[in-house]
Amino acid sequence: MQIVSGAGAFTPSNDPAKTANYVEHLSVPDLSVGTYSIAAGGADGQGPHTEDEIYVVTAGRARLVTESGEADAVPGAVLFVPAGEVHRFVEISEDFAALVIFGPAEYSRAT
After folding, report:
1. Are 8 and 36 in contact (CB under 8 A)?
2. CA 58 distance to own-chain centroid
3. Would strands 20-28 and 52-66 be described as parallel, antiparallel, or unpaired?
4. Kind of pairing, strands 31-38 and 87-103?
5. What Pfam families does its record include (predicted)?
6. pLDDT reported for residue 109
């Protein structure tokens, strides 16, 4: 067993030029877990990933826009994005944080 501390807590970037921040908390071959934070009014610059993702929103408000649709990203929302799908959080009206679960682990399928 391992307790994953700090997961899901909003963590601003140390770089004042960046409004988004990702902190990885755990990585094993079959999955990885981290927290993605975006400051209110910030921009999400991520690209599609080679692994499936689940976002569990823990704080703030945003909208997730994908190739296949859009959804409100509010505390308690659980959002799935399949590998390779272009997606982005927009309309970040409050400091936003989401627990991110990659399966398999992030970058494990990267070429």
Report:
1. no
2. 11
3. unpaired
4. antiparallel
5. Cupin_2 (PF07883)
6. 84
Instruction: For residue 107, name the pLDDT band (cuts at 50, 70, 90).
Output: confident
CB 44 within 8 A of CB 66: no
Q: Are 107 and 47 in contact (CB under 8 A)?
A: no
- Per-domain boundaries in the chain: 27-39+48-86+98-111
How many angstroms separate the CA atoms of 110 and 92, rounded? 29
Task: Count the Cβ atoms, other than its own, within 10 Å of residue 54.
Answer: 16
CB atoms within 10 A of CB 53: 22
106, 24 Cβ separation under 8 angstroms: yes
d(CA 65, CA 28) in angstroms, rounded, equals 28
pLDDT tens profile 15-53:
988 999 999 999 999 999 999 999 999 999 998 999 999
